Amino acid sequence: MVTIENEDISLLFDENGLVSSITEKASNKTYPFRQQFFYYKGVMNDTQPSGAYVFRPDGDAIKVEKAQLEVIKGDLVQEVRQTFNSWIAQVIRLKKGTKPIEFDWIIGPIPKEAKCVRC
Within a domain: residue 7? Predict the structure, then answer.
């Protein structure tokens, strides 16, 4: 398991590369945390395919299960770069001297082979 932290907060990542808990150091309280990514495949037919103006999912949402992690630990910033696939990624960052947790997620470009919309 991976941990990043600053003076105020500690983030624990589980075996799937996802944040599993947030610890507030001042109070020594740990909170469970779960973030998930899902996408839909769009209906691809001649009568009314899913597209930019019509959302027609072909089945249930598909959950993205695991992330590859790259961990960066410096004097001023600690961050985890999560890569779920070639078109879903996220950077989670803690800066020294600040309490906010930064979540920068990147979606796209979606490959045509994925045949999904509203991912």
Answer: no
